[in-house]
Backbone:
């Protein structure tokens, strides 16, 4: 099986099953879920996802012919806010008024940043998704040209009525700083975007900007406090009844535990390497299937909390102004030769210590002057990364390793 076939495609991580909450509220599943609320005065759409918005329009029209009145973004990520056009086109074709678009006041800023960092975002998303390690062309775009900015923004909370239903919008900070979750009290239904994804929260993503552990927990606790009958998450299956409380509060408990442990260890004078080793997840949380580390994971969360409260200094003065890693490797390899590192890495591979083997083989790659030895080390790195990927549960990590293996192999074959 090729590395491309072994990568994790995030859209395939979730069950693509639509679900009904009540006769007037349903969820259309996709790479990201869309919540649909039908009232006698119009339809409210919460989130939209590329490749599935047309399906959502079709699902709406099998149930009702009333206008699409409002589109709400739970946040400004592409799988929740980049595919609004099909809804506008449906309204235009039917002669209906253009739907209004609502989002938090920070959504436009996020869109503008995507414009300025289009190539970078395409680049890191390509690695995260296991597609490519090659930077995109100069004219690459990340924000679609037809993306629709919100017409209406709010700060902390807003509310409106449509038909017989009330829509309460609350700002939260979690995976992003521009998050919104929606509460429909008459139906005891919460539509929460990526406040809930059904797995370990993706705080501390290796590629992405700061995410917010404590506030994420607070948002989940606030949702649980409403005691919903139904919860439409940003990804994954519809949640119902008592499981909503358990999943929300367990997830909040995990986030609070890691947050508080990192702060405790910082106050005790520990640096990041020791903090990563010392933070332990309580067994009763670690075994919960809805906290499985398949997207986020405790290691990422620890890094996310640390990055928020501490600087990048790691406690070792030698690394305050470090030499380039290639310069260090050349000196180290010059002492004992590349062969010693390659052979020891192979021995560690046999013993199952893949991670340390990777560190050693990097010395040979960066420090060897002999092209043949460098090629041997690169091919060994590809082999090690393949093995590491095979054993990895976290999907982002798996894709990073598979992409790294392909890059190392390609570089070796180019020598």
Residues:
């Amino acid at each position: 099986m090729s590395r491309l076939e072994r990568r994790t495609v995030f859209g395939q991580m979730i069950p693509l099953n639509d679900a009904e909450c009540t006769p007037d509220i349903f969820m259309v599943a996709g790479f990201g879920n869309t919540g649909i609320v039908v009232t006698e005065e119009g339809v409210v759409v919460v989130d939209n996802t590329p490749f599935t918005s047309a399906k959502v329009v079709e699902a709406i029209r099998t149930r009702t012919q009333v206008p699409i009145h409002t589109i709400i973004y739970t946040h400004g990520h592409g799988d929740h806010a980049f595919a609004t056009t099909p809804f506008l086109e449906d309204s235009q074709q039917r002669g209906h008024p253009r739907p209004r678009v609502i989002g938090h006041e920070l959504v436009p800023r996020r869109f503008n940043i995507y414009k300025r960092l289009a190539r970078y975002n395409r680049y890191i998303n390509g690695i995260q998704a296991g597609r490519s390690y090659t930077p995109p062309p100069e004219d690459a775009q990340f924000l679609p040209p037809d993306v629709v900015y919100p017409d209406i923004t709010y700060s902390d909370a807003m509310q409106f009525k449509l038909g017989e239903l009330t829509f309460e919008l609350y700002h939260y900070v979690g995976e992003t700083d521009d998050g919104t979750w929606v509460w429909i009290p008459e139906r005891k239904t919460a539509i929460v975007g990526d406040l809930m994804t059904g797995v370990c929260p993706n705080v501390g993503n290796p590629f992405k900007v700061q995410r917010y552990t404590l506030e994420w927990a607070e948002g989940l606790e606030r949702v649980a406090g409403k005691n919903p009958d139904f919860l439409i998450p940003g990804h994954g299956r519809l949640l119902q009844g008592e499981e909503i409380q358990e999943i929300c509060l367990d997830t909040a408990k995990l986030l609070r535990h890691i947050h508080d442990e990192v702060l405790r260890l910082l106050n005790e004078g520990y640096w990041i390497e020791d903090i990563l080793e010392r933070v332990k997840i309580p067994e009763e949380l670690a075994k919960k299937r809805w906290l499985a580390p398949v997207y986020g994971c405790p290691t990422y969360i620890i890094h996310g909390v640390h990055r928020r409260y501490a600087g990048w200094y790691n406690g070792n003065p030698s690394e305050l102004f470090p030499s380039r890693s290639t310069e260090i490797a050349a000196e180290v390899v010059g002492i004992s030769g590349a062969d010693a590192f390659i052979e020891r890495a192979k021995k560690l591979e046999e013993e199952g210590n893949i991670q340390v083997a990777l560190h050693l083989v990097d010395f040979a790659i960066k420090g060897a002057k002999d092209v043949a030895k460098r090629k041997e080390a690169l091919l060994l790195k590809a082999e090690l990364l393949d093995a590491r990927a095979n054993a990895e549960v976290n999907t982002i990590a798996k894709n990073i390793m598979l992409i790294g293996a392909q890059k190392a192999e390609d570089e070796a074959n180019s020598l």
Notes: The longest strand covers residues 165-172. The first helix runs from residue 3 to 6.
